[in-house]
Amino acid sequence: xxxxxxxxxxxxxxxxxxxxxxxxxxxxxxxxxxxxxxxxxxxxxxxxxxxxxxxxxxxxxxxxxxxxxxxxxxxxxxxxxxxxxxxxxxxxxxxxxxxxxxxxxxxxxxxxxxxxxxxxxxxxxxxxxxxxxxxxxxxxxxxxxxxxxxxxxxxxxxxxxxxxxxxxxxxxxxxxxxxxxxxxxxxxxxxxxxxxxxxxxxxxxxxxxxxxxxxxxxxxxxxxxxxxxxxxxxxxxxxxxxxxxxxxxxxxxxxxxxxxxxxxxxxxxxxxxxxxxxxxxxxxxxxxxxxxxxxxxxxxxxxxxxxxxxxxxxxxxxxxxxxxxxxxxxxxxxxxxxxxxxxxxxxxxxxxxxxxxxxxxxxxxxxxxxxxxxxxxxxxxxxxx
Length: 385
Prior knowledge:
The chain is α/β, with parallel strands linked by helices. It has a domain at about 5-70 and about 100-175 and about 265-345: FAD/NAD(P)-binding domain, CATH 3.50.50. It is built from 13 helices and 19 strands. It has helices at about 10-25, 50-55, 60-65, 90-95, 105-115, 160-165, 230-240, 245-250, 285, 295-310, 315-345, 350-365, 365-375, and strands at about 5-10, 25-30, 45, 70, 75, 80-85, 100-105, 120, 125-130, 135-140, 145-150, 150-155, 175-185, 195-200, 200-210, 215-220, 260-265, 275, 280. The protein has a seven-stranded mixed sheet. The chain has a six-stranded mixed sheet with strand order 8-2-1-12-19-18. β14 (about 195-200) and β15 (about 200-210) form a beta hairpin. The longest helix has 29 residues, at about 315-345.
């Protein structure tokens, strides 16, 4: 088996698989199209499955030290009433760790710190991927040509490589929701570690970070491409009557810190995550809505599973076949569950449907809610030799 890999994309999934491949003896180059690593993004919640994947990659301890455990909070109505309460201690007892909140920029930096500097090629966009002699793959960039025994496409929801491999696939579809998010500038005196609030066709949530700041997000049912001249002012208008600390979070945000993205997903599942010696990973393979907070966690699972398969199978082809068999059913099931969670949560707008949902949530026993969470969090990574 050859041992030279090119990873397309330097986000969470791409960096994670590069770390995993190096741990099992592969030479790796990560090709990232952006020329400046500004680590744009807000915050992220890492569940037990994502944290276990990071442990397998050898960076779990560093991530935990930089993150904040989510022990308190839950889901509320705009008036402030509780639909469900979070008990992070119960979850920690069940799976060994609480959910952890961390800034995306911090996670990116910690992952990059586990790689030699020369591994990352920035400002280089992939334009072509083609098979050459003896099963090797040639990756054509605007400024260079690379050859490898394996190509891992971790180039996100708009994946160039996915389009080359599956030209008849429709690609990402708009979910009907758009998300605005930011990290507050000063520290916040928050009463809980994590909250979601569901209104009619709208959601507001926050994550408390270790340094005292908070990440917040607002999800709205709007036509694709909707943009506001002053996003922060628009959110203050929409959420002015919602419970504390929502207005305070918006007041603690710089206007130029607000990010706005439409939420897309691969609503038509891919028939395979591999073709020849090319593997798709993360959003390139299974972009999902954010309603379960599993997008990054599934990419981390992908990274560890692929590295393990390459370490234990006799050929690259056998390793990729195993990767597809192990990852495609699980990740696509999580994507379906995330879509359903959105339909029953933030996407609901009819008053009667919202009232029925809220009643059902209040009546759900805490144990049942914990069991639903464990379906996705209770994943054990394979060993990396």
